[in-house]
UniProtKB/TrEMBL annotation:
Protein name: Ig-like domain-containing protein
Annotated SMART domains: IG
Record Gene3D superfamilies: Immunoglobulins
Domain Ig-like residues, every copy: 30-142
């Protein structure tokens, strides 16, 4: 049982009733009203010729949530399109794009193999969840040339040794 404490200067029964309602609301709050979100990294580094995983995690405390569909889209200098769609009833469809033969879905994350410089861009993960609705977050993939990093590191090292 929840004690009803009158507010200072307020002993009106409706204020006491509101306190009881708020107490019960906090205790009997359905799990669907608790926090749900989609989590991605703002930026993901990748290296030319290697693979990158663009993580997309649906976080919920509700046991009743069911992911119905996952979709990944790309927006870059060279294209603006849907890469793939996974539907829990119909399976996965990989659409025509420069990534078609190099992508796969792991959980809700997008795995891209044999990275190319043109893969640099913004990738949006969209997830439809029953009964909660849709969630969408965007991450940016930046593809680096590994050889350039080695050369820059060597140049910095040699500059440091000469001092």
């Amino acid at each position: 049982q929840h004690p009803v404490l009158p507010l200072v200067g307020h002993s009106h029964p409706s204020v006491q009733l509101s306190s009881i309602c708020l107490s019960y609301l906090n205790i009997y709050c359905p799990s669907d009203l608790q926090a749900q979100k989609l989590e991605v990294l703002p930026e993901v580094p990748g290296y030319l010729g290697h693979e990158a995983v663009l993580r997309c995690r649906f976080i919920t405390s509700s046991k009743d949530s069911r992911v119905l569909q996952v979709q990944w889209d790309i927006k870059s200098e060279s294209e603006n399109s849907t890469i793939l769609v996974f539907n829990s009833d119909h399976g996965m469809t990989i659409r025509e794009s420069s990534l078609k033969d190099r992508v796969n879905l792991t959980e809700h994350s997008l795995k891209i193999t044999d990275l190319k410089l043109t893969d640099t861009g913004s990738y949006t993960c969209s997830i439809s969840v029953f009964p909660s609705g849709s969630f969408k977050e965007t991450t940016t993939l930046i593809v680096y040339v590994l050889l350039l990093l080695v050369i820059l590191t060597a140049a910095a090292y040699l500059t440091y040794i000469k001092r």
